[in-house]
Write a structure and sequence with these properties.
Elements lengths: L6 E4 L15 H14 L3 E5 L5 H10 L8 E7 L11 H9 L3 E7 L2 H7 L4 H17 L3 E7 L1 H7 L1 H13 L4 E6 L6 H14 L4 E6 L6 H10 L4 E4 L13 H11 L7 H4 L2 H12 L16 E2 L2 H9 L17 E2 L7 H10 L8 H16 L8 H11 L8 E15 L6 E13 L2 E9 L2 H14 L9 E9 L10 E8 L4 E8 L2 H28 L4
Parallel strand pairs: 1-2, 1-8, 2-3, 3-4, 4-5, 5-6, 6-7, 7-8, 9-10
Antiparallel strand pairs: 11-12, 12-13, 14-15, 15-16
Helix pairs in contact: 1-2, 1-12, 5-7, 6-7, 8-9, 9-10, 17-18
Bound molecules: zinc ion (ZN).
């Protein structure tokens, strides 16, 4: 649903993918486009067809992709100095993308035009005018991204205004004001917006904020309050340096806090899912502290906070988390008492009539594990397994009999400079339903080898194990004074493509700690697979 008050414009596929560490395949980009379409985003900037063949391929495939809500725009610069649109290869690649919209980035700063682009102020204005007119004549919706507008305005206000007025006269549908370097404070940014509203009244404005001063979302919302029509941003705040405005946070604030129905309620309730989905495809670990959608966004630890939300959830939550598809969580720790544990059990959906004595035993078990270096706050999957193992009738899917790790250096140098790679081989003895499995595998390190050997033994019994991927592996030394004799805690984050879960292992031996976390990760994946199969078999449950 689009309101006529504000428009959401996503640039994850172009600006967001410029983030360090992100590389999206054409297929990833198509899948993200569909997801953003489902979320109800109005415009999606698909990429820069002139910059690489991958983006050009994306636009070719997009022609056969049906979208329900969103329209896609192709991004590129104004024509190069001293040429024509017809002769400019980048401009022609945007034409070839055959999208309903084009987003033209042009310098809106005299300093940038003369010093960085090395052209004259007049030529830059001609480039803006001709390129906008060129695409309007082709019937496109034209977004003019006024690059460096705010910095330009505070340098040479008149020139920056001329750039905008030129684009408006040439027929641009939206003038997107860019805080390209992300350094604007809110008051200065609003001053620039007010000046534009005076100089080019009646033209729709957009805002494009980077987060270098930590203000991208706040500035975007302030711009909307000041009358700006279009907000640009990226899922999970991805983007170069400190990222772009997080479009999910912006969306949630517009919808929940400012009462602007930018998307339907049902679409808003997918926000958390969209955040995780895009992290998965971008191969980025989700940020637990992300507003609204992070795993910790509604997590409660301190005993009196928990006591408070037991009386009323609003006590320590700014919204009902289900509005954005998230949920409250109670963190289990030695600080927390029986009440936390009870809430936690309810939250995990463990439907078992615990007696007071059983609860006390369970709590002592948690405390005992914590004294051994375990911590369940970041590892709820291990916590759930700890509880389920105490329930009558629970049988673990496998047992480890023994493992041996052999590490050696490869015989040939790996890098041609005489540095030989380390290789590890793991031999694993596992028991599944009483039958002993003996497997071996080689890996680039002991944990990798152990993981591969264990999977080899398990996949023939549990094919779902093949879908599990380790996303993150963290080691913490718990008693740094004891140096190499210290207790080590290993946290492993895994995914099966649908859910993420974290498991923990602790030992004085790093390999054993890793194995414990790994075994929990695999056991939990099977629990999830069983649960999902159960849901399918009995949709009424
Ligand atoms: Zn940008």
């Amino acid at each position: 649903m689009a309101t006529d008050r504000v428009q959401l414009y996503d640039t994850t596929l172009r600006d967001g993918s410029q983030m360090e560490g992100i590389s999206l395949s054409v297929e990833d980009k198509i899948r993200i486009t569909r997801k953003l379409d489902e979320l109800g985003i109005e415009w999606i900037e698909g990429g820069f067809p002139g910059s690489n063949p991958k983006d050009a391929e994306y636009f070719r495939r997009l022609k056969n992709t049906e979208l329900r809500n969103a329209k896609v725009s192709a991004f590129g610069g104004t024509r190069k100095p001293g040429t024509t649109c017809e002769a400019d290869a980048n401009i022609q690649s945007i034409v070839a993308a055959e999208t309903p919209g084009v987003t033209l980035v042009g310098k809106a700063s005299l300093f940038q035009a003369t010093k960085i682009l090395e052209t004259s102020g007049e030529e830059n204005l001609a480039m803006i005018a001709e390129t906008v007119k060129y695409f309007k004549a082709l019937g496109k919706t034209v977004f003019f991204d006024a690059e460096h507008f705010f910095d330009g305005y505070f340098g040479d206000a008149d020139y920056s205004m001329q750039c905008l007025a030129t684009a408006a006269r040439a027929g641009a549908d939206v003038l997107a004001l860019c805080d390209t370097n992300g350094g604007m404070t809110t008051r200065r940014m609003l001053e620039g917006i007010a000046a534009v509203q005076q100089r080019v009244p009646g033209v729709r404005l957009g805002i494009h904020c980077h987060n270098d001063a930590g203000l991208a979302v706040a500035n975007s919302l302030a711009a909307v309050e000041a009358g700006v029509w279009q907000v640009q941003g990226c899922v999970n705040g991805y983007g170069e340096r400190c990222g772009n405005a997080d479009i999910l946070t912006v969306l949630a604030n517009l919808k929940v806090k400012m009462g602007l129905d930018v998307v339907e309620d049902e679409q808003a309730s997918r926000l958390t899912e969209v955040a995780n989905y895009v992290s998965e495809l971008a191969n980025m670990v989700p940020n637990p502290q992300a507003p609204y959608v992070g795993a910790s966004a509604f997590a409660h630890k301190a005993g009196y906070h928990v006591a408070g939300i037991l009386k009323d959830e609003r006590a320590y939550q700014h919204i009902n988390p289900t509005i954005v598809g998230n949920q409250s969580r109670v963190l289990v720790s030695e600080l927390a008492g029986q009440r936390n544990l009870l809430m936690k059990l309810e939250e995990l959906g463990i439907d078992y009539p615990f007696t007071q004595a059983e609860i006390r035993t369970l709590l002592n078990a948690v405390k005992h594990k914590e004294s051994q270096g375990y911590q369940y706050e970041g590892a709820e999957a291990s916590f759930e397994l700890l509880v389920r193992r105490t329930l009558p009738g629970y049988r673990g899917p496998f047992e480890l009999d023994d493992f041996v790790i052999v590490e050696r250096r490869a015989s040939a140098p790996a890098d041609g400079e005489g540095r030989r790679e380390m290789l590890a081989e793991a031999m694993v003895k596992l028991r599944v339903d009483g039958s002993l499995q003996h497997t071996a595998a080689e890996g680039n390190g002991p944990v990798n080898a152990l993981d591969l050997a264990a999977r080899k033994a398990l996949t023939q019994f549990y094919p779902d194990v093949a879908n599990v991927k380790l996303v993150d592996y963290k080691v913490r030394i718990l008693d740094s004074k004891a140096a190499t004799g210290a207790q080590v805690r290993v946290l492993i984050e895994s995914t099966d493509g649908n859910s993420y879960w974290t498991t923990v292992g602790s030992s004085t031996d790093i390999i054993e700690a890793s194995w414990l976390a790994l075994a929990d990760a695999l056991e939990y994946s099977l629990l999830l697979a069983r649960r999902r199969a159960g849901d399918r078999a009995d949709p009424g449950a």
